[in-house]
Amino acid sequence: MEPIHRNPTRRVLAGGVVIGGGAPISVQSMCATPTRDVEATTGQVQAMRGAGADLVRVAVDSAADARALGEIHERSGADLVVDLQEHYRLAEKVAPHVAKLRYNPGHLHHHERRRPMRDKVAWLAEVASAHDCALRVGVNCGSVAPEYSERFPGDSVAAMVACALDHAEMLDDLGFRNFVVSLKDSDPDKVVEGNERFAGERPDVPLHLGVTEAGLLPDGEIKTRIAFEKLLAQGIGDTIRVSLTLPNERKREEIEVGRRILDDVANGRFRSVPRLTGLNIVSCPSCSRVENDRFVELAERVRDLTRYAEGHDVTIAVMGCRVNGPGETDDADLGLWCGPRYVNLKRGTEKLGHFGYDEILPVLEAELNKLIGA
Prior knowledge:
Elements: E1 12-14, E2 17-19, E3 26-30, H1 38-50, E4 55-59, H2 63-76, E5 80-83, H3 91-94, E6 100-103, H4 105-109, H5 117-130, E7 134-140, H6 146-151, H7 156-173, E8 179-184, H8 188-201, E9 207-210, H9 219-232, E10 239-241, H10 253-266, E11 280-283, H11 295-305, E12 315-319, H12 325-328, E13 334-338, E14 342-347, E15 350-356, H13 360-372
Parallel strand pairs: 3-4, 3-10, 4-5, 5-6, 6-7, 7-8, 8-9, 9-10, 11-12, 12-13
Antiparallel strand pairs: 1-2, 13-14, 14-15
Helix pairs in contact: 1-2, 7-8, 8-9
Protein backbone atom coordinates (compact mmCIF):
# COMPACT_ATOMS: atom_id res chain seq x y z
CA MET A 1 0.00 0.00 0.00
CA GLU A 2 1.31 3.42 -0.94
CA PRO A 3 1.52 5.96 1.91
CA ILE A 4 -1.30 8.51 2.02
CA HIS A 5 -0.25 12.15 1.74
CA ARG A 6 -0.46 13.69 5.20
CA ASN A 7 -0.58 17.18 6.61
CA PRO A 8 2.27 17.73 9.11
CA THR A 9 1.03 17.39 12.70
CA ARG A 10 2.72 16.99 16.04
CA ARG A 11 3.69 13.51 17.22
CA VAL A 12 1.46 11.93 19.89
CA LEU A 13 2.47 8.72 21.63
CA ALA A 14 -0.23 6.31 22.81
CA GLY A 15 1.62 3.35 24.26
CA GLY A 16 3.49 1.80 21.35
CA VAL A 17 1.40 3.63 18.74
CA VAL A 18 2.52 6.92 17.22
CA ILE A 19 -0.32 9.18 16.03
CA GLY A 20 0.57 12.06 13.73
CA GLY A 21 4.07 13.28 13.04
CA GLY A 22 4.16 11.40 9.74
CA ALA A 23 3.42 7.99 11.31
CA PRO A 24 1.15 5.57 9.40
CA ILE A 25 -2.56 6.15 9.94
CA SER A 26 -3.62 3.90 12.80
CA VAL A 27 -6.93 2.04 12.99
CA GLN A 28 -8.92 1.48 16.15
CA SER A 29 -12.24 0.17 17.38
CA MET A 30 -14.20 -0.32 20.60
CA CYS A 31 -15.25 -3.42 22.52
CA ALA A 32 -18.94 -4.16 22.93
CA THR A 33 -18.52 -6.70 25.73
CA PRO A 34 -19.05 -5.67 29.38
CA THR A 35 -15.61 -4.55 30.54
CA ARG A 36 -16.02 -6.31 33.89
CA ASP A 37 -16.27 -9.60 31.94
CA VAL A 38 -12.52 -10.14 31.65
CA GLU A 39 -12.73 -13.30 29.56
CA ALA A 40 -15.13 -11.92 26.95
CA THR A 41 -13.45 -8.52 26.70
CA THR A 42 -9.96 -9.99 26.41
CA GLY A 43 -11.24 -12.25 23.64
CA GLN A 44 -12.73 -9.32 21.75
CA VAL A 45 -9.56 -7.24 22.14
CA GLN A 46 -7.52 -10.11 20.72
CA ALA A 47 -9.95 -10.59 17.83
CA MET A 48 -9.64 -6.91 16.93
CA ARG A 49 -5.86 -7.04 17.11
CA GLY A 50 -5.96 -10.08 14.84
CA ALA A 51 -7.96 -8.01 12.33
CA GLY A 52 -5.30 -5.27 12.39
CA ALA A 53 -6.35 -2.94 15.22
CA ASP A 54 -3.59 -0.68 16.51
CA LEU A 55 -5.64 0.56 19.47
CA VAL A 56 -8.69 -0.94 21.16
CA ARG A 57 -11.06 1.16 23.24
CA VAL A 58 -13.14 -0.03 26.19
CA ALA A 59 -15.72 1.76 28.30
CA VAL A 60 -15.21 2.12 32.05
CA ASP A 61 -18.40 2.96 33.90
CA SER A 62 -17.76 1.52 37.36
CA ALA A 63 -15.14 0.50 39.89
CA ALA A 64 -15.69 -3.12 38.76
CA ASP A 65 -14.80 -2.14 35.18
CA ALA A 66 -11.70 -0.33 36.42
CA ARG A 67 -10.57 -3.36 38.43
CA ALA A 68 -11.03 -5.64 35.42
CA LEU A 69 -9.00 -3.40 33.14
CA GLY A 70 -5.63 -4.32 34.62
CA GLU A 71 -6.19 -8.01 33.97
CA ILE A 72 -7.50 -7.33 30.45
CA HIS A 73 -4.37 -5.34 29.69
CA GLU A 74 -2.08 -8.00 31.15
CA ARG A 75 -3.78 -10.84 29.26
CA SER A 76 -4.12 -9.08 25.91
CA GLY A 77 -0.91 -7.06 25.81
CA ALA A 78 -2.82 -4.48 23.72
CA ASP A 79 -2.54 -0.71 23.68
CA LEU A 80 -5.89 0.14 25.24
CA VAL A 81 -7.93 3.34 25.23
CA VAL A 82 -10.50 4.09 27.91
CA ASP A 83 -13.70 5.99 27.19
CA LEU A 84 -14.48 7.90 30.39
CA GLN A 85 -17.78 9.52 29.34
CA GLU A 86 -19.79 9.97 32.56
CA HIS A 87 -17.07 8.80 34.95
CA TYR A 88 -14.03 10.98 34.45
CA ARG A 89 -12.93 10.55 38.08
CA LEU A 90 -12.07 6.91 37.29
CA ALA A 91 -9.16 8.16 35.15
CA GLU A 92 -6.77 7.82 38.07
CA LYS A 93 -7.64 4.13 38.52
CA VAL A 94 -7.40 3.14 34.85
CA ALA A 95 -4.48 5.27 33.65
CA PRO A 96 -1.79 2.76 34.75
CA HIS A 97 -3.26 0.19 32.35
CA VAL A 98 -4.00 2.23 29.22
CA ALA A 99 -2.28 4.07 26.40
CA LYS A 100 -4.87 6.82 26.00
CA LEU A 101 -7.78 8.40 27.86
CA ARG A 102 -10.73 9.84 25.97
CA TYR A 103 -12.98 12.51 27.46
CA ASN A 104 -16.03 14.21 25.98
CA PRO A 105 -16.12 17.96 26.85
CA GLY A 106 -19.92 17.95 26.70
CA HIS A 107 -20.19 15.20 29.30
CA LEU A 108 -17.40 16.72 31.39
CA HIS A 109 -19.45 19.94 31.56
CA HIS A 110 -22.27 18.14 33.40
CA HIS A 111 -20.11 16.73 36.20
CA GLU A 112 -18.99 18.75 39.21
CA ARG A 113 -20.62 21.78 37.63
CA ARG A 114 -19.30 24.16 40.27
CA ARG A 115 -15.76 23.16 39.42
CA PRO A 116 -14.28 25.21 36.54
CA MET A 117 -13.79 23.27 33.31
CA ARG A 118 -10.11 24.21 33.26
CA ASP A 119 -9.61 22.56 36.66
CA LYS A 120 -11.22 19.31 35.48
CA VAL A 121 -9.13 19.25 32.31
CA ALA A 122 -5.98 20.10 34.29
CA TRP A 123 -6.64 17.13 36.58
CA LEU A 124 -7.06 14.80 33.59
CA ALA A 125 -3.86 16.15 32.02
CA GLU A 126 -2.02 15.63 35.30
CA VAL A 127 -3.21 12.01 35.53
CA ALA A 128 -2.27 11.39 31.90
CA SER A 129 1.18 12.90 32.38
CA ALA A 130 1.87 10.85 35.50
CA HIS A 131 1.19 7.61 33.60
CA ASP A 132 2.54 8.55 30.14
CA CYS A 133 -0.93 8.42 28.58
CA ALA A 134 -2.21 10.34 25.61
CA LEU A 135 -5.53 12.19 25.77
CA ARG A 136 -8.27 12.42 23.15
CA VAL A 137 -10.59 15.38 23.24
CA GLY A 138 -13.69 13.72 21.77
CA VAL A 139 -16.24 16.32 20.65
CA ASN A 140 -19.59 15.12 19.29
CA CYS A 141 -22.17 17.37 17.64
CA GLY A 142 -24.92 15.68 19.61
CA SER A 143 -23.41 16.36 23.03
CA VAL A 144 -21.61 19.72 22.97
CA ALA A 145 -21.79 21.74 26.17
CA PRO A 146 -24.77 24.14 26.29
CA GLU A 147 -22.57 27.26 26.20
CA TYR A 148 -21.44 26.41 22.67
CA SER A 149 -24.95 25.68 21.43
CA GLU A 150 -26.02 29.04 22.84
CA ARG A 151 -23.11 30.83 21.16
CA PHE A 152 -23.86 29.24 17.77
CA PRO A 153 -27.63 28.67 17.59
CA GLY A 154 -28.58 26.48 14.67
CA ASP A 155 -24.95 25.77 13.71
CA SER A 156 -23.86 22.55 15.40
CA VAL A 157 -20.61 22.37 13.39
CA ALA A 158 -19.48 25.82 14.54
CA ALA A 159 -20.31 24.85 18.13
CA MET A 160 -18.32 21.64 17.82
CA VAL A 161 -15.28 23.36 16.27
CA ALA A 162 -15.27 26.15 18.86
CA CYS A 163 -15.37 23.60 21.68
CA ALA A 164 -12.51 21.58 20.17
CA LEU A 165 -10.39 24.69 19.66
CA ASP A 166 -10.98 25.86 23.23
CA HIS A 167 -9.94 22.51 24.70
CA ALA A 168 -6.87 22.28 22.48
CA GLU A 169 -5.83 25.75 23.64
CA MET A 170 -6.55 24.81 27.25
CA LEU A 171 -4.29 21.76 27.08
CA ASP A 172 -1.56 23.77 25.36
CA ASP A 173 -1.74 26.40 28.12
CA LEU A 174 -1.45 23.63 30.71
CA GLY A 175 1.73 22.44 29.03
CA PHE A 176 0.19 19.14 27.92
CA ARG A 177 0.81 18.40 24.25
CA ASN A 178 0.29 14.63 24.00
CA PHE A 179 -3.29 14.88 22.79
CA VAL A 180 -5.43 14.33 19.71
CA VAL A 181 -8.84 15.74 18.83
CA SER A 182 -11.92 14.24 17.23
CA LEU A 183 -14.95 16.06 15.81
CA LYS A 184 -17.75 13.64 15.04
CA ASP A 185 -21.33 13.57 13.82
CA SER A 186 -23.61 11.00 12.22
CA ASP A 187 -23.83 13.27 9.13
CA PRO A 188 -20.70 12.74 6.97
CA ASP A 189 -20.92 16.27 5.55
CA LYS A 190 -20.74 17.76 9.04
CA VAL A 191 -17.78 15.54 9.85
CA VAL A 192 -15.98 16.83 6.77
CA GLU A 193 -16.80 20.48 7.47
CA GLY A 194 -15.89 20.26 11.14
CA ASN A 195 -12.53 18.60 10.56
CA GLU A 196 -11.65 20.93 7.69
CA ARG A 197 -12.38 23.96 9.84
CA PHE A 198 -10.44 22.66 12.83
CA ALA A 199 -7.46 21.61 10.70
CA GLY A 200 -7.43 25.08 9.15
CA GLU A 201 -7.14 26.66 12.61
CA ARG A 202 -4.90 24.05 14.27
CA PRO A 203 -2.94 22.17 11.59
CA ASP A 204 -0.50 20.97 14.27
CA VAL A 205 -3.01 18.83 16.20
CA PRO A 206 -3.45 15.19 15.10
CA LEU A 207 -7.03 14.29 14.21
CA HIS A 208 -8.96 11.14 15.01
CA LEU A 209 -11.56 10.65 12.26
CA GLY A 210 -14.93 9.01 12.69
CA VAL A 211 -18.57 9.16 11.67
CA THR A 212 -20.37 8.47 14.90
CA GLU A 213 -23.35 6.13 14.76
CA ALA A 214 -22.70 5.28 11.10
CA GLY A 215 -25.10 2.37 11.53
CA LEU A 216 -25.65 -0.94 9.80
CA LEU A 217 -23.82 -2.31 6.78
CA PRO A 218 -23.67 -1.49 3.93
CA ASP A 219 -24.89 2.06 4.63
CA GLY A 220 -22.49 2.48 7.56
CA GLU A 221 -19.49 1.91 5.33
CA ILE A 222 -20.87 4.28 2.69
CA LYS A 223 -21.37 7.10 5.22
CA THR A 224 -17.89 6.55 6.61
CA ARG A 225 -16.33 6.56 3.14
CA ILE A 226 -18.05 9.84 2.27
CA ALA A 227 -16.24 11.54 5.14
CA PHE A 228 -12.95 9.66 5.13
CA GLU A 229 -12.29 9.85 1.40
CA LYS A 230 -12.81 13.62 1.34
CA LEU A 231 -10.67 14.26 4.42
CA LEU A 232 -7.86 11.79 3.79
CA ALA A 233 -7.51 13.08 0.22
CA GLN A 234 -6.69 16.49 1.76
CA GLY A 235 -4.09 15.02 4.13
CA ILE A 236 -6.46 15.38 7.12
CA GLY A 237 -6.58 12.46 9.57
CA ASP A 238 -4.02 10.56 11.65
CA THR A 239 -6.07 7.74 13.18
CA ILE A 240 -9.50 6.38 12.26
CA ARG A 241 -12.46 4.59 13.84
CA VAL A 242 -15.29 3.01 11.85
CA SER A 243 -18.44 2.89 14.01
CA LEU A 244 -20.84 0.17 12.87
CA THR A 245 -23.87 -1.47 14.46
CA LEU A 246 -22.72 -5.10 14.65
CA PRO A 247 -23.24 -8.07 16.94
CA ASN A 248 -20.33 -8.87 19.24
CA GLU A 249 -18.94 -11.70 17.16
CA ARG A 250 -18.58 -9.37 14.15
CA LYS A 251 -17.01 -6.29 15.78
CA ARG A 252 -13.69 -7.05 14.07
CA GLU A 253 -15.36 -5.98 10.81
CA GLU A 254 -14.97 -2.34 11.90
CA ILE A 255 -11.21 -2.83 11.59
CA GLU A 256 -11.52 -4.63 8.27
CA VAL A 257 -13.64 -1.83 6.79
CA GLY A 258 -11.19 0.79 8.08
CA ARG A 259 -8.21 -0.99 6.57
CA ARG A 260 -10.09 -1.38 3.28
CA ILE A 261 -10.86 2.35 3.10
CA LEU A 262 -7.22 3.26 3.83
CA ASP A 263 -6.02 0.87 1.14
CA ASP A 264 -8.47 2.29 -1.41
CA VAL A 265 -7.50 5.90 -0.69
CA ALA A 266 -3.78 5.09 -0.80
CA ASN A 267 -4.23 3.48 -4.22
CA GLY A 268 -6.49 6.17 -5.66
CA ARG A 269 -9.68 4.10 -5.57
CA PHE A 270 -12.41 6.52 -4.59
CA ARG A 271 -15.81 4.85 -4.57
CA SER A 272 -18.00 7.90 -5.19
CA VAL A 273 -19.01 10.29 -2.46
CA PRO A 274 -22.70 11.03 -3.03
CA ARG A 275 -24.73 13.36 -0.85
CA LEU A 276 -27.10 11.27 1.22
CA THR A 277 -30.82 11.77 0.57
CA GLY A 278 -33.93 9.77 1.33
CA LEU A 279 -34.43 7.53 4.34
CA ASN A 280 -31.46 7.69 6.73
CA ILE A 281 -31.14 5.11 9.51
CA VAL A 282 -28.67 6.26 12.16
CA SER A 283 -27.60 3.68 14.74
CA CYS A 284 -24.75 3.66 17.22
CA PRO A 285 -22.00 1.06 17.31
CA SER A 286 -22.85 -1.61 19.84
CA CYS A 287 -20.65 -1.21 22.91
CA SER A 288 -20.50 -2.34 26.53
CA ARG A 289 -22.98 0.37 27.56
CA VAL A 290 -25.82 -1.35 25.69
CA GLU A 291 -28.20 -2.57 28.42
CA ASN A 292 -30.17 -5.05 26.30
CA ASP A 293 -28.60 -7.39 23.76
CA ARG A 294 -31.68 -7.01 21.54
CA PHE A 295 -30.47 -3.55 20.47
CA VAL A 296 -28.63 -4.75 17.34
CA GLU A 297 -31.57 -6.93 16.31
CA LEU A 298 -33.91 -3.97 16.83
CA ALA A 299 -31.78 -1.72 14.61
CA GLU A 300 -31.86 -4.35 11.86
CA ARG A 301 -35.64 -4.74 12.18
CA VAL A 302 -36.14 -0.97 12.02
CA ARG A 303 -34.11 -0.89 8.81
CA ASP A 304 -36.15 -3.70 7.27
CA LEU A 305 -39.51 -2.35 8.44
CA THR A 306 -38.97 1.15 7.09
CA ARG A 307 -37.70 0.32 3.58
CA TYR A 308 -41.04 1.42 2.13
CA ALA A 309 -40.16 5.03 3.09
CA GLU A 310 -36.88 5.12 1.12
CA GLY A 311 -38.17 7.88 -1.15
CA HIS A 312 -38.70 10.28 1.77
CA ASP A 313 -36.12 12.49 3.48
CA VAL A 314 -36.59 11.05 6.97
CA THR A 315 -33.96 10.30 9.62
CA ILE A 316 -34.60 7.56 12.18
CA ALA A 317 -32.05 7.17 14.99
CA VAL A 318 -31.66 3.98 17.02
CA MET A 319 -29.40 4.41 20.05
CA GLY A 320 -28.31 1.63 22.39
CA CYS A 321 -27.86 3.32 25.77
CA ARG A 322 -28.59 6.21 28.10
CA VAL A 323 -25.30 7.98 27.29
CA ASN A 324 -25.95 8.66 23.60
CA GLY A 325 -29.69 8.06 23.51
CA PRO A 326 -31.33 11.14 24.99
CA GLY A 327 -29.24 13.81 23.26
CA GLU A 328 -28.18 12.22 20.00
CA THR A 329 -31.73 11.40 18.91
CA ASP A 330 -32.80 15.05 19.16
CA ASP A 331 -31.97 15.89 15.56
CA ALA A 332 -33.70 12.81 14.14
CA ASP A 333 -37.27 12.90 12.88
CA LEU A 334 -37.92 9.78 14.96
CA GLY A 335 -35.59 8.52 17.66
CA LEU A 336 -35.42 5.30 19.64
CA TRP A 337 -33.09 4.76 22.56
CA CYS A 338 -32.91 1.48 24.36
CA GLY A 339 -33.08 0.79 28.06
CA PRO A 340 -32.86 -2.55 29.86
CA ARG A 341 -36.57 -3.38 29.38
CA TYR A 342 -38.09 -0.60 27.30
CA VAL A 343 -37.39 1.43 24.16
CA ASN A 344 -37.92 5.17 24.47
CA LEU A 345 -39.54 6.77 21.42
CA LYS A 346 -39.14 10.42 20.42
CA ARG A 347 -40.33 12.68 17.63
CA GLY A 348 -37.51 15.21 17.42
CA THR A 349 -37.05 16.39 21.00
CA GLU A 350 -40.59 15.37 22.03
CA LYS A 351 -40.88 12.21 24.11
CA LEU A 352 -43.70 9.94 22.93
CA GLY A 353 -43.38 7.26 25.60
CA HIS A 354 -41.58 3.99 26.25
CA PHE A 355 -42.55 0.61 24.85
CA GLY A 356 -41.47 -3.00 25.21
CA TYR A 357 -39.10 -4.47 22.65
CA ASP A 358 -41.99 -6.50 21.27
CA GLU A 359 -44.29 -3.46 21.12
CA ILE A 360 -42.15 -0.71 19.62
CA LEU A 361 -42.20 -1.52 15.89
CA PRO A 362 -45.95 -1.01 15.23
CA VAL A 363 -45.80 2.28 17.15
CA LEU A 364 -42.77 3.40 15.15
CA GLU A 365 -44.50 2.47 11.89
CA ALA A 366 -47.56 4.50 12.81
CA GLU A 367 -45.43 7.58 13.61
CA LEU A 368 -43.47 7.16 10.39
CA ASN A 369 -46.71 6.99 8.39
CA LYS A 370 -47.81 10.27 9.96
CA LEU A 371 -44.53 11.89 8.91
CA ILE A 372 -44.68 10.77 5.27
CA GLY A 373 -48.44 11.09 4.91
CA ALA A 374 -48.97 7.42 4.21
